[in-house]
Amino acid sequence: MTGFLARRLANYVLLCLAATFLAFALGSLTFSPLGQLQGRNPAPPASVIAAKRAELHLDEPIPARFVAWMGGVVHGDFGSTITGQPITDELGARAGVSLRLFALGTVLGIAVGVLVGVASAIRQYKASDYAATLFSFLVLSTPVFLIGTLLKFGGLRLNEAAGSTVLYYTGEFSPGFQGGWWAALADRLSHLVLPTLAIALSQIALYSRYQRSAMLDVLGSDFLRTAQAKGLTRRRALFKHGLRTALIPMATLFAFGFGLLITGGVFTERIFGWYGMGDWFIYGVQQNDTNIVATVTLFVAVLVLFSGWLSDVLYAALDPRIRL
Amino acid sequence: MTDHVTEPVLSVDDLTVSFPSEQGRVTAVRGLSYRVSPGEVLGIVGESGSGKSVSSMAVMGLLPPQAKVTGSIRFQGRELLGRSDVELSQIRGRRISMIFQDPLSALTPVYTVGDQVAEALLVHGAQSRQAASARAVELLDLVGIPGAARRAKSFPHEFSGGMRQRVVIAMAIANDPDLIIADEPTTALDVTVQAQVLAVLATAREVTGAGIVLITHDLGVVAGLADRVQVMYAGRTVETAPVDEIFYHPRMPYTRGLLASIPRLDTGPRQPLIPIEGQPPSLVSLGPGCPFAPRCLLVIDHCLTTEPDLAPVSDTQRSACHRSGEAAPPAPLVSGVECYNTVSHSRVVLRVEHLVRHYPVRKGAILRRQVGTVRAVDDISFELREQETLGLVGESGCGKTSALMEILNLAAPAHGRIEVLGTDVSALDRRRRMQLRRDLQVVFQDPIASLDPRLPVFDVLAEPLRAHGVATTEIRRQVPELLRMVGLRPEHAGRYPAEFSGGQRQRIGIARALALEPKVLVLDEPVSALDVSIQAGVLNLLSELQTRLGLALLFVAHDLAVVRHIADRVAVMYLGKIVEIGPINAVYTGPQHPYTQALLSAIPIPDPAKERARERILLTGDLPSPADVPSGCRFRTRCLRYAALTPGLQSRCEQEEPAREQRGEDGHESACHYATAHAVL
Amino acid sequence: MSASITDPHSTAASPGSPAQPLIEGRSGRGRLVLRRFLRHRLSVIGLVCIVALYALAFLGPLFTPWGYAEQDPTAYLSPPSAQHWFGTSQIGEDVFAQTLRGLQKSLTIGLLVGIISTTIAAVVGTAAGYFGGWVDRALMWVVDLLLVIPAFLIIAILSPAFRGKTWLILVVLLAAFSWMITARIVRGLTLSLREREFVLAARFTGVPPWRIIVRHILPNMASILIIDATITVGTAILTETGLSFFGFGVQPPDVSLGTLIANGTNSALTFPWLFLFSGGLLVLTVLSVNSVGDGLRDALDPTSARGSRRRSGD
To answer: What number is the ipTM of this complex?
Structure first.
């Protein structure tokens, strides 16, 4: 058993390493970090460029650079950006921003998604079912950047109508905010609403679709019939026996939904000016900064694998058939 | 049996149920009427599609909302049709309860069985949770679940099918109902388990005094348990009478056909069966006239235009046939089936020696790890001779299919030796293996799964020929030939498998297996998925082809009655071992191994008098897991003979694995330390 | 649910020519699928929309004198008018011509990626499922690896490499990173199909593995592949526009719906035509594709949740 755990953990570490190496190598191959320097007008002297070149170890082979970088990571040093800032300094704050956004989006997405899905299934082919279906199709067909932008303008209109700023759409809190704890919380909340909605909407759409079909599967099941034959009313059988069983397949969906969440997070952070990992990634690509890109990739890989593991644990918790 | 004049518990009148479907409205039940008296067991018999299950779901009010139900269902004088779900839920589980066909899916997977039984009590009574749990344990004990108090805390997946069905029965009798509807309660179970469950059902009847509606396709099950029988065909009752009348004086040709087509244990070996030709009609568009007319041997012109009513033929018997008033005509003559000669026992075409197949068992989703070894096939040996049929029988999980797969792989087994036509398969190169495949072919159980739904029948039959490089022109010639050989029309070569019925598909499967003119044909439960009336035709075809083509058949089945009709010799498997092997007659009339005896005694015989008079050997407990085989003799945990031994004699069974030894007639071997022949039929 | 033959007197094709009844059989199933599909009003509307969108994207440019890169010096940021149906941009480009160009791009990229990625998924999935062993382990490890980093991130990292090159590279990349989930599903199906009796029957008569895959396994999952291809088309369009939104996708002077939306967002409130048409058409396209996919699922895969789930009859 410990052998199995160790093998599984080793595979996770290997996958993280391979994924990070992939990002690192691809970045190193395609990026031209000296481009900006070379493009300056007047052109900097060759010695400056050569110095930068040496500073970024661009003459060493990519695997060697990766090993050197990874060696630092093991000791908590994620290297520095092209401009020389240590990445580690910024990492904690940015990771925190992203994690807050993801956690809220996931919890809201699952909770509302499951509710909407169950309601749709039970009231199949009723107006509410059609409305929910249409909503999720519409959301799943609209790119996050469009949803985000629309929400932003919605917020703007709302503020105009209210005559004051009800909902903020830039940043996590008002810069230089002064006030008590409650006021600070209110300020944060009014910053939180739109980005959280932007990220949760697609999660709600996804989970509600799957919960609906899982619930429909259960509706025709033999054990539900048995429960009714025992004397439970249809409604009671549905909630006690149906819903509990229909939640099981949601556990596997969780890992998949998470991948969607991360991509959505990139857009959301950018649009609403949250300085999280996604925002950093885009910045890294635009700056041709391999270290930033590799760091974000490692962060994402760890999160994805963690969500995969969590999804397995959830599955086992929900389904006695596969418990240990 | 019943001469009650009391008010019936249940009376169904002119019940009609229809569903929307792709093809149009399906009328699954067409004007059904019946009554059940208190304490009476009414057997409803019919093949799939006869409407027997739908009608019982209508009684429970559990049909899907798109079903249209008309007529009347009165329970103790109260009309049930049209009542709300809340009203019906007061009656369901308390006054009327139901037992379903598939115990594997009938229980909610996420709650313990104790909680699920207790729930039946809690929804109807004012008992406390503790009282309900305690009563649930009592009920589980009553239906024969060993260690009920402990097992009540288990989840359904930790129970075998038979045990789960007991749980369902416990739920059904929890509130002492007045009517129990059992819908194919044993169809999904093995025969020895079926015998146990039927015994529990009989107990349930005694305990509750309830009327029972027993729905089944198996006339044997009805013969032993029912007081009155009602035969259904195409959504209607075609005959109803007390059980003896149905079996001894059937008037409706369909009832007669059913009785003649069932393979029976109590006849001599290799008796031909009389199939009912054709298939049940589609319920979407029934024409006028008797729905059975196209399959009926006694059909007259009047049958084609007017559907007969269910009319009395005697005080107690009613039958829906225009000719039921006439004197019973002689049984139809068997046509086209020859009686078989004794086979010349010559060359061995398949020899299996000490074959072993073990699988690792893995467990857990998060921590997948090997927790043991399934000993699916554990040292079996047998041989099959030219033109001979060897039946390999056993219950599910005994390793018979694993053994087949091992043989069909034509690869070196982990242990032991397989020889096909004198060639050791472990020494084969690619080319020789390919050649040998021509001589060893297989027919599978499931006529739906065994044909690729995306290929027209022509391609299905051409595939083996193409794989072995037969020229296209030759294939064009052979395919119609093959179809004709199995009794199908060559014109149908362009159709897809879905367009054929189960029996026809099984014939296509046989034709495919015969395409390469094999010498050995392996059949894995070839008729167990078919309705009885269809089964007989396929069995007859196999016998006929065997004599014509000189095939050797390895016939794997769980149904000993079927095997008796087709095999020359039989091998009985239990937990990966052959416990008894020998000529059909010797084994069926003088079984030596206690397992064989139990197996034979568990099979119901469609003859009420014989059923009532029979001694039944009921095995205790469940089949042990093949991952955890008992020491010494692996049957001892369920063996009645072992249980009757003194501890001194028992120790031999516990320590020493019995070897197969010849006792009695030539080639009749059994693996039991204390084997004695004991006729159970 | 299919009717079994009850009338033995139908069809009398000569056994030598399997072609004629073959068509009969196909059309039988085809009709059933078509009928089930047509029952979905939303999917039918989706299909009509897709046809209309294709017509608009490829025939529309014939009706406007403006090219997508052409500038009208007389009209900067002019609202929709008879001259410029969708208005003009900051530098006088005709938004109608640009939007159609973007739509062409999105439709083509979606279609190509859908086909290529489903093909990869089918090959990898069946190989892993059928052969098992180390082939399976190796392929599934690659799938796991590629699933660890979202495709969007990888392509973004690679974007500098195809800056200034043809957009077909983008198609290849999108396809190369969107087959993994389908491959997993295909592998799962293959594992169960491999044990099905008709596959065993073929194996035991000596049909070689590749032929079993082509003749038995792939055709039997065709419906899933078609459905997944549709879903991939939608995802690919979304990913492409997302990449283009950040400037990592289709490169100027060429346009895509993503770049148009990106350009339009900043001034969306004041000059809504810069944003609304491209955004609206994008949503309409993906919505149509998804609803067709949903309809196909119900029509092709009767075991799915919304098909005719309950068995009527006995």
So the answer is: 0.86
